[in-house]
């Protein structure tokens, strides 16, 4: 281990010397006008103290985890007096470090200005890595029958170092059962390993079933903590005292009181449905994020359609359930809503919705290891009916039904089918084509009639239409470019290989349409993953630590530097740590060292790579002892409906991009209506529209009004309507997501002790923002209530008080106090109520910590992003295309955005390739998810200011 440690780059060793150590130091009160030179001197002295205190060990048990809170010395070293003060809040400390915000976070007047920002940003990266390591250690709970091995280990190998599981074998009913080995040792080979399979099997060649459609969702929380309304343990019963149920507190009442967007002119909004004729007089107020656009909102819907689904072909189970609008809390007692209450709230007691499919709700088995008893799975499990891989299945399909909607071009089966509009019969077949519509013989639900034909057609919108059309064009662009190269060099080796005949060179002229189609799918899926990792996420989390952290996930902290160092470090990660039977080496050190070369491509540069050997094909994969699937908690934190505005500000590129010409209700672009909207407006105009408009902030009182009143004719209910904000709450409760405070503890974040802890302590007490937050706190108290606490009741074993004592029902308040029912707050409500966030965060820190774990795992676990990212699978052109963000060499961006020399980002190039009309609009854009007309400023500015040429844009006059 020491030898491996010394192979770390020098800057990493220096950074690791100043690690977080949680202590009980009280913060010093800074002087009213601190002397910068004194603050820097104090900070440097604190750095020395932090180094002397040594490296903080990884927690041995989950109750003493890092929690994102550092010592007084580390806080002062990394962020000065402000960071000292921030330690007194429940929120992670690194958001107050130097260099982690905009220009105001870069100190001036100090002895040196670069040193503090260096310490602050690197300190934040260290904090984030500590969180990731402990999340991998404490938050993996598989529901598919492997958890006992994870805890107990097997045959001398620790559980977290296991690589194969009997539960991940293909069943005898699978048509590929014999091909992978049948009753014997199962190993995928031949055509099953060449490319992504339809159902997702054989991504991991020695665990064929992993991540495939129909396998159960995992968990990131202890099984005993899930489904809190069941009261499975004394801790859960003490925590909630029988106050919880599927409809308790009432989800529709929560929606109408806490989540509804307030309107200054309700008649101009009409409940989110706008005005006739798409009138410009329509207006629906919403709280806007200045640094994120509506394209980014639709992007995440595009992603979730790839990752997970509880539904089957657009529907849930046959049983129907009520969805609230029944009761409210009065003096901590539930009383029925009166007709006047219902009218005032605007909710609907007759709404019903189809129940969730349940895979297994039988009593779980249990087992005992070292005297401790464990549940073998959660009380209920649910199937992920999509593939869990990042495989673009929303485009290409994931089962026998969906693949029939992914139509291939009969004139060139390597391409997907695009059709020119009648009005443009001579248009370029790629940049002028559009997806075909569903036909009567296609697998479909009645609500999908008339919409475009795609693998995952449910909840289809204009934004999804735009992105589906864009990436189908991109698929065909790759095929077109490949065909051009084949005509120039027909006998040249294209790089592709068939593992059944590995020594046979496949020339450009030899590749079959099916082989080229499969390679193009690999390229598109990798581009999508790269866009999400290096473009969408750094704009979602718009600050320097996350820019560096997300690019490190892909390219590595040194991945774009010395290739020999990067290759050597990757070799250590995969061949030393990756093969270890020791859990610390196989998980903790693997994760840390992988930050050097980056996750993407790990294992692909092995010296003796053999496409016929499982050890080569799978060599860069690490599941950290638990088979990969998305956890239910990941689904929960992607409930992002506030991002969507009620009205889209439609623009016309050929007229004046700075002018809004119509205000189109989002609901009028749903399902079959999206086809006419897309064909009438065209890709360029919709790109301009979605790219310029700001999306909504993820906060309370910001759900789209139309989503609370959405009409779903498929529902067998008196109203045929549903409140999607209320449904988000219900689905989380159905799926057993713990309530907010325990959710935070389970993920190693500090708990809240009252509703007041949600308040942002950094804003002035006399500000409008403070008054609005106080109003929200009062509403939380009204909806969730209070109780007289009992200090004899311990409520969790996931965390301890700062003095090491168990956390009890009083949450630090005196026994017998009246305390807030903060334990009962729904997780989706809690993370929307987090008013304190790091700079540039469009999501809360609670959502983000779920992301830290799962964003890494979905790369670590996928061989096509690690050891199988090679020409044998992608073709050489495919590898270069992904690495260079398109054909040809890397193209560099002008200037140094936020101080970085960087390539033109992948989505920008995808847009320029496939919608060339947008060139003049996109040229000044750095990140395609930043509003296209915004001036980004010098360093992570959130200012809403127009760039040159956009001064007349009416969006900047609001």
Write up what this structure looks like.
- This protein is mainly α and 958 residues long.
- It is 35% helix and 7% strand.
- The protein has 31 helices and 20 strands.
- A hairpin with a 2-residue loop joins strand 4 and strand 5.
- Helix 3 packs across helix 4, helix 9 packs across helix 23 and helix 9 packs antiparallel against helix 25.
- The longest helix is centred in the middle third of the chain and has 28 residues.
- The chain is globular and about 80 Å long.
- It starts with a helix and ends in a 36-residue tail after the last helix.
- The N terminus is likely disordered.
Specify the structural class: mainly alpha
User: Shape from CA axes?
Assistant: globular
User: Main beta sheet, described?
Assistant: 2 strands, antiparallel
Q: For the largest sheet, list the strands in their spatial order.
A: 1-9
Number of helices in the DSSP assignment:
31
Number of strands: 20
User: Which residue ranges are poorly predicted, with pLDDT under 50 across at least 5 consecutive positions?
Assistant: 1-31
Strand fraction? 5-15%
Query: N-to-C terminal Cα separation, in Å?
Result: 58 Å
If you average the pLDDT, what whole number results?
92
């Amino acid at each position: 281990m020491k030898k491996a440690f010394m192979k770390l780059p020098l800057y990493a060793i220096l950074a690791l010397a100043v690690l977080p150590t949680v202590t009980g130091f009280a913060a010093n009160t800074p002087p009213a006008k601190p002397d910068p030179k004194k603050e820097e001197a104090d900070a440097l002295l604190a750095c020395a103290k932090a180094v002397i205190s040594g490296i903080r060990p990884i927690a041995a048990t989950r109750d003493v985890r890092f929690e994102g809170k550092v010592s007084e010395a580390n806080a002062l070293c990394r962020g000065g007096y402000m960071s000292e003060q921030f330690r007194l809040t429940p929120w992670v400390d690194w958001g107050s470090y130097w260099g982690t915000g905009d220009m105001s976070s870069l100190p001036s007047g100090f002895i040196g200005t670069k040193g503090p920002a260096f310490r602050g940003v690197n300190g934040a990266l260290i904090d984030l890595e500590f969180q990731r390591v402990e999340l991998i250690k404490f938050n993996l709970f598989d529901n598919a029958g492997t958890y006992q091995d994870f805890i107990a280990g097997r045959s001398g190998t620790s559980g977290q170092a296991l690589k194969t599981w009997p539960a991940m074998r293909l069943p005898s009913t699978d048509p590929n059962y014999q091909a992978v080995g049948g009753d014997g040792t199962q190993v995928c080979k031949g055509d099953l390993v060449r490319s992504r399979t339809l159902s997702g099997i054989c991504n991991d060649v020695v665990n064929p079933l992993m991540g495939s459609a129909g396998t159960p969702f995992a968990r990131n929380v202890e099984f005993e903590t899930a489904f809190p309304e069941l009261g499975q343990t004394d801790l859960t019963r003490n925590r909630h005292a029988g106050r919880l149920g599927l409809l308790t507190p009432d989800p529709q009442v929560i929606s109408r009181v806490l989540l509804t967007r307030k309107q200054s002119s309700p008649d101009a909004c009409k409940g989110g449905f706008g005005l006739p004729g798409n009138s410009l007089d329509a207006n629906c107020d919403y709280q806007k994020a200045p640094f994120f656009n509506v394209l980014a909102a639709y992007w995440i819907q595009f992603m979730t359609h790839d990752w997970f689904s509880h539904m089957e072909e657009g529907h849930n189970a046959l049983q129907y359930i009520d969805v609230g609008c029944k009761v409210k809390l009065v003096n901590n007692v539930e009383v029925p809503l009166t007709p006047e209450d219902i009218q005032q709230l605007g909710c609907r007691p007759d709404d019903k919705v189809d129940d969730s499919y349940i895979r297994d709700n039988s009593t779980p088995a249990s087992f005992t290891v070292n005297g401790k008893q464990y549940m073998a799975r959660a009380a209920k499990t649910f199937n992920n009916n999509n593939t869990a891989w990042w495989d673009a299945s929303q485009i290409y399909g994931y089962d026998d039904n969906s693949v029939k909607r992914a139509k291939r071009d009969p004139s060139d089966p390597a391409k997907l089918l695009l059709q020119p509009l009648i009005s443009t019969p001579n248009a370029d077949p790629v940049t002028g084509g559009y997806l075909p519509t569903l036909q009567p013989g296609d697998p479909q639900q009645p609500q999908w009639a008339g919409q475009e034909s795609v693998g995952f057609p449910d909840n289809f919108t204009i934004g999804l239409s735009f992105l589906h059309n864009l990436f189908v064009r991109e698929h065909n662009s790759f095929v077109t470019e490949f065909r051009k190269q084949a005509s120039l060099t027909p006998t040249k080796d294209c790089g592709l290989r068939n593992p059944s005949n590995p020594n046979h060179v496949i020339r450009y002229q030899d590749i079959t349409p099916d082989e080229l189609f499969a390679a193009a799918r690999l390229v598109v899926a990798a581009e999508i993953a790269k866009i999400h990792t290096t473009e969408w996420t750094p704009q979602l989390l718009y600050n320097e630590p996350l820019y560096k952290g997300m690019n490190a996930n892909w390219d590595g902290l040194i991945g774009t530097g010395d290739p020999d160092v990067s290759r050597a470090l990757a070799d250590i990660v995969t061949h030393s740590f990756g093969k270890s039977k020791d859990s610390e080496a196989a998980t903790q050190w693997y994760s840390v060292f992988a930050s050097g070369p980056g996750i993407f491509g790990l294992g692909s540069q092995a010296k003796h790579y053999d496409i016929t050997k499982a050890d080569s094909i799978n060599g860069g994969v690490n599941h950290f002892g638990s088979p990969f699937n998305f956890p239910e908690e990941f689904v929960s934190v992607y409930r992002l409906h506030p991002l969507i505005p009620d009205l889209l500000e439609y623009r016309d590129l050929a007229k004046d991009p700075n002018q809004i010409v119509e205000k189109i209700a989002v609901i009028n672009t749903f399902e079959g209506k999206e086809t006419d909207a897309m064909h009438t407006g065209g890709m360029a105009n919709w790109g301009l529209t979605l790219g310029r408009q700001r999306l909504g902030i993820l906060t309370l009182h910001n759900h789209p009004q139309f989503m609370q009143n959405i009409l779903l004719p498929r529902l067998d209910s008196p109203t045929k309507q549903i409140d999607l904000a209320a449904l988000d709450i219900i689905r989380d409760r159905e799926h057993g997501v713990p309530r907010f405070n325990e959710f935070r503890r389970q993920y190693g974040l500090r708990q809240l002790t009252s509703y007041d802890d949600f308040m942002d302590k950094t804003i002035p007490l006399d500000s409008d923002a403070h008054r609005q937050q106080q109003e929200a706190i009062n509403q939380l108290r009204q909806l969730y209530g209070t109780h007289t606490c009992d200090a004899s009741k311990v409520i969790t074993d996931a965390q301890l008080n700062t003095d090491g004592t168990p956390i009890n029902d009083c949450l630090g308040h005196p026994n017998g106090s009246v305390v807030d029912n903060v334990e009962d707050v729904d997780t989706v409500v809690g993370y929307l109520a987090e008013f304190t966030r790091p700079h540039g965060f469009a999501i809360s820190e609670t959502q983000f910590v779920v992301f830290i774990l799962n964003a890494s795992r979905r790369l670590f676990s996928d061989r096509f992003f690690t050891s199988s990212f090679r020409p044998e699978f992608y073709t050489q052109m495919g590898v270069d295309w992904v690495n260079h963000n398109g054909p040809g060499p890397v193209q560099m961006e002008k200037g140094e955005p936020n101080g970085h020399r960087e390539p033109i980002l992948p989505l920008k190039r995808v847009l320029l390739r496939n919608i060339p009309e947008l060139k003049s609009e996109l040229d000044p854009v750095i990140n395609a998810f930043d509003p296209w007309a915004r001036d980004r400023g010098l360093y992570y500015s959130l200012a809403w200011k127009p760039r040159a040429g956009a001064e007349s844009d009416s969006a900047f006059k609001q």
